[in-house]
Design goal:
This protein is an alpha+beta fold. It has five helices and four strands. 35% of the residues lie in helices and 12% in strands.
């Protein structure tokens, strides 16, 4: 985790889709505004974050440099904005849509391993090198 990060993302490195998305954000993170912590690592300790593993496993969490904890779509909105890709998550800014999108996100997060398989992502242990590529040509990871 970078101590200079404006936002640190706590992600499930065992989830193929999640890992691919974090790697995409890492590529876009040229200014170093994001930090990344894989909660699936055996040495990960959630205590400093003040959130238990069950909560971290349910939804993406992040923490700001000033110590605020963001959850779910708020984490995604902040992360994509910090890497200059706010347009990708533009619907998350529409107040009237946020409850629906948050609910859809929670459903996706609960079933992320199944969705990963359906989208063609291979398990993290079966990636080529350090890159997990989807098998499905419609999901190229751009």
């Amino acid at each position: 985790m970078s101590t200079t990060a404006e936002l640190t993302l706590y992600y499930d490195g065992n989830c193929p889709f999640c890992l691919a998305e974090m790697r995409r954000l890492m590529r876009w993170n040229s200014a170093g505004r994001l930090g990344f912590v894989d909660i699936s690592r055996p040495d990960f300790d959630p205590a400093p974050l003040g959130v238990d593993m069950a909560a971290l496993d349910r939804e993406l969490h992040s923490s700001t440099a000033d110590g605020r904890v963001l959850v779910g779509i708020d984490s995604m909105l902040a992360a994509y904005t910090l890497v200059g890709r706010a347009w990708i998550v533009l619907p998350l800014r529409v107040h009237a849509l946020r409850p629906l999108l948050a609910s859809l996100y929670r459903g996706f997060a609960r079933n992320r391993y199944r969705f990963s398989r359906w989208m063609g992502y291979r398990p993290a242990g079966h990636c080529d090198g350090d890159v997990c590529q989807p098998v499905n040509p419609f999901f190229r990871g751009r």
